[in-house]
Amino acid sequence: MKTRIKEYRAKHSMTQLDLAKAVGVRRETISFLEKGEYNPSLKLAIKIAHQFHISVEDLFIFEDSDFE
């Protein structure tokens, strides 16, 4: 799964730490998400999307291999 978190953080002038605090996770979690090394829970995905006032589908790009 690919993500646009870094792009949206930049648009909102947020650091990884800012976003982490806003959604209640560690900064490392945001880093792992941005690198594609961690798939978030649905709850976390929704929290992050709401932080940027967008849908989960706008924030995360699902690929066919994600569903196999």
Question: In a nutshell, what does this entry contain?
Answer:
By secondary structure, the protein is mostly helical.
Uncertain stretches: none
- Numbering strands along the chain, what is their spatial order in the largest sheet? 1-2
CATH architecture type: Orthogonal Bundle
Shape, per Cα inertia axes: globular
Which strand-content bin applies to the residues?
5-15%
* Overall mean pLDDT: 92
Main sheet characteristics: 2 strands, antiparallel
Helix content: 55-70%
Count the domains: 1
Q: How large is the radius of gyration?
A: 11 Å
**Helix and strand succession?**
EHHHHHE
Give a count of the beta strands, DSSP E runs of length 2 or more.
2
Description of the molecule:
- The protein is mostly helical and about 70 residues long.
- The chain has a single domain, classed as 434 Repressor (Amino-terminal Domain) (Orthogonal Bundle).
- The protein is about 55% helix and about 5% strand.
- The protein contains five helices and two strands, in the order E-H-H-H-H-H-E.
- It has helices at about 5-10, 15-25, 25-35, 40-50, 55-60; strands at about 1-5, 60.
- It has a two-stranded antiparallel sheet with strand order 1-2.
- Helix 2 crosses helix 3.
- It is globular.
- The two termini are about 10 Å apart.
- The relative contact order is 0.22.
- The model has no long low-confidence stretch (mean pLDDT about 90).
